[in-house]
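Appendix C reproduces, verbatim, an entry submitted by the partner laboratory led by Prof. M.T., so that reviewers can inspect both the input and the predicted structure.
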Amino acid sequence: MKTKKTDVDLSRVHELNLLENGVDFIRSGIETFFLEDTPDPVAHKYAVLHLFSGVQLLLKERLRREHASLVFERVEEAAAPSARTITFDQSVLRLRACAGIKLSVQADKRLRTAKRIRDSLEHFKLELNLKQTQTVIGQLAEFSYEFMREHLDEELEQHLRPEAWRRVQSLRAIAEKLEKEALKLRRERIRRYKSLSAADREALKARCVYHPKDNPDAPDLFYCPECSEESVAVVEDGIAVCTNKKCEAVIEFERCFRCGNPAWNGGAFCDLCDEYIEYQ
């Protein structure tokens, strides 16, 4: 009786070097997301997980090209089978100190936001804001493209299916256009709220005062990142105004991925959730 032939030879060892492993994760993350017309929440989740894992491996590959021992926590244990490799933070530090590669402020901020989301996906309950997650996925794909080209002499296009690459390119063009439009709109919104009168600010503050009958659903006042007073009122999605007469800051924010409160630091999480995730 003939045995059924399998597609994969299970007796063969599948080996990937550091670069190949990183590119494989990135390809998986991109194609999981970009080959679907309407990616579902699971696709968002695995795209973030795989893309960030791939990016970490790309950083280590660049360090390996500088010296093989640099990818290990303790360089003197580089040859040991149980030697531990470096963390994301160590990779960034060693790239700057040992390879002369300093990530831009924007790239560093985006990668750390992605790391926080990755950590939450792996260790905590998390309600995904799919619009924000899509932005992070696009940023990770963009970083992979630029880092591979500038520091590894590799072209991301050569490692993706043509359809996935077309969608990545389309997203880059769309993202650039949307970013310009959003910047223009943001400037207009901020300018409008900077001209609020003292009476308008007092009205905003009064709107947030709780009363069991007259105002049972009063919105929260938040602590201001500028003056540290509990005086910030959200006026519309993404914009908040400090009602403190000595401050009067107009603040942009994103919603925290974990609790939904404003994240003043420009990342994916508010300060409290950021600290909670960091020290778990």
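Helices lie at 18-34, 41-66, 88-99, 105-123, 130-151, 162-194, 198-207, 271-278. Additional entries are available on request from the coordinating office.
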